Amino acid sequence: MADEKTQVRFGILGCAEIARKVCRAINLSPNSILHAISSRSIEKAKQFVVKNSLPESVKVYGSYEEALDDPFVDAVYVPLPTSLHLKWAVLAAEKKKHVLLEKPTALNVGELDRILDVCESNGVQFMDGSMWYHHPRTAKMKEFVSDTKLFGQVKTILWVWKIYECY
């Protein structure tokens, strides 16, 4: 485990269901720690802490601004609705917080460009919540499709992922 001086201290903006999984992953990682949880209401943030058995050391805030103003938060995870990503990612980057956005990262390419520009100009890292690139299956799939005996010389792979809503 990394020592406290080298761990990335995360703040979470919002108490969405996906945040439960991510806060667990943050705490399981030897290089990060959950420092703060925030919500639009202090009551909801406190419930999140209790429901997820988070340690008392986790700061609890009743607004997203409070988490962004915490000087001990190095990075923020933003599981808010996509329509709010631009606002909160830009504010976080302007406060020198690294940004981890849940997918989809933005409503359109213009919003994403703005987020990326602000992150770059403030010297902070932008990350998205796509696990695909980091999953062991990805390396295995690359190895599989690169086998010229099976597929020949692969030049392009087109992949489409769609979620269909049933009514």
Structural class: alpha/beta
Distance, first to last CA: 47 Å
Percentage of residues in helical conformation:
25-40%
Strand order of the largest sheet: 3-2-1-4-5-6
Mean pLDDT: 91
Rg calc: 18 Å
Biggest beta-sheet profile: 6 strands, parallel
Strand/helix succession: EHEHEHEHEHEHH
Poorly predicted spans: none
Please state the overall shape, judged from the principal axes of the Cα atoms. globular
Query: What percentage of the residues does DSSP assign to strands (E)?
Result: 15-25%
Tell me what you see in this structure:
It is built from 7 helices and 6 strands. It is an alpha/beta fold and 167 residues long. It has a 6-stranded parallel β-sheet, sandwiched between helices. Strand 4, helix 4 and strand 5 (98-101) form a beta-alpha-beta unit. Helix 4 (85-94) runs parallel beside helix 5 (109-121). The longest helix is centred in the C-terminal third of the chain and has 13 residues, at 109-121.
